């Protein structure tokens, strides 16, 4: 492919830092037309099937504007094929493109964000390179695409359109240009990261991580999603919690019907305040400021009925203060309830932190914090590297992680037991 560094660039003004990287302004081969019908998609599919090397892929959603996380633009680039911008509203089935690229590595930045919406379009990689995850494994403190491109390729990407409403039609040309540039440099970034991973001895680790992402089953819907309402910790009793739950589900129903982000129907802060105040009349409801936003004020009867259902709910139907779970209790209770487990947790956390510092990566990329807590709370009956390794494997740890941590963690657990 044409190297992204050949793109037109715009330098900063004379009063700016002379060493600041130049700004990528135009795609090197011009802005491609948006693919928005079956014939054009067939042409893109043929061109990408004939191309060579990895395929850079990105997707733009309308987070904060629309309900859900569907894609509203898909960008692709491959050597020999150039760049393509596909409108997934007009072309919602990319299975033909996916079949044409069977076995080809796809390069994404933060794959966990884009893979679900790409899967909805039937575009799913067989092989993956995640540039954000590669940066984390290499120990970069900042792994946003803009920062990594400037750090490694010495050019800048304009990011002012990253949070716009991509469901808008037609999409402005400057937004499309921004989207095309995101994939134009992605292969170059991938190559630079792969070289650094190989030099640091982490390339096989990265490949295990990428394979694990692709092998992961689809996420199950979160139980009790209303419990993630921002500010819910301020709700002090079960009846008010019931009001949060009833208001949350009414808001979600309306948001889905209108295809708008739930926060645009009713902010979380309004739900929490109404659940605390438990208003009985429309006048009382109107005193809560956030119920005055455009969509919320259309449904006063709906909100009051939700609060009244919570008010009249039998005690046995009220939600528990804390969601039931299969994990250990909150860590701040361990010292009193299970001092031995608290001692083990301190020991294994210290071990994990030390290993992460040695290999230069965040501790959460070495082992998930939940896995560390579970190991400390209920370690294997026989504490040795094999049993600890099997425990980690059952929790989804990769072999490179087990190889680094099983022995030190077994040693830490035995030392804690002796203490």
From TrEMBL:
Its EC number is 3.1.13.5. Residues 9-28 have a biased composition (Basic and acidic residues). Transmembrane segments: none annotated. Keywords: Hydrolase. GO terms for molecular function: 3'-5' exonuclease activity; nucleic acid binding; nucleotide binding; ribonuclease D activity. It comes from the Bacteria. Residues 237-317 form the HRDC domain. GO terms for biological process: nucleobase-containing compound metabolic process. It is an enzyme of class 3 (hydrolase). InterPro entries: 3'-5'_exonuclease_dom, Exo_C, HRDC-like_sf, HRDC_dom, HRDC_dom_sf, RNase_D-like, RNaseH-like_sf, RNaseH_sf. It holds the Pfam family DNA_pol_A_exo1. This is Ribonuclease D. It comes from Nocardiopsis algeriensis.
